[in-house]
Amino acid sequence: MLNMCVKIMSRPGYQERGSKKTVSEASDRRSFGASGFTLLEMIMVVVMLGLLAFYMGMASPNSINRVALARQLVNDIRLAQAYALNYNPSVGASIVSTGSNTYNVCTPTAICTSMTLGDAIMTSFNLVFDGYGSTSNATITVTMNGTTTIQVTGATGLVQVLP
Fold this sequence. Notes:
single chain, alpha+beta, four-stranded antiparallel β-sheet, 8 strands
């Protein structure tokens, strides 16, 4: 019996009864630490996730959706129309194509912002909105791996992407 007590007391991690940990708790702690992930494994996972996020964020210009670019142009046309509606009715705002894929959105105070449609090609246009939001009729075609048509109805100022 005395030999048994000596063996238990000589075990690594053994503490007496008054202490907080018992022999079984100390051995459980060692087995728990052995089943976790190492720091190296965790770092490798974080690096791989970072590389994946970087790759997914780097979209090439050819992968940009043509319809999304057409909707961007529609929103900018509506912005020019809103500029005209919010300023003096006798002064209009304009949106004018300046190249095959660039255009300027101008406020009635002649502050212009140049915009680009990436690799898309569009037909030339010149829309000047009066203070009531109307303009001349226009049909704008955006081409990139297919064609999307934007129609502007002059009398009402309706701007829409046609299917």
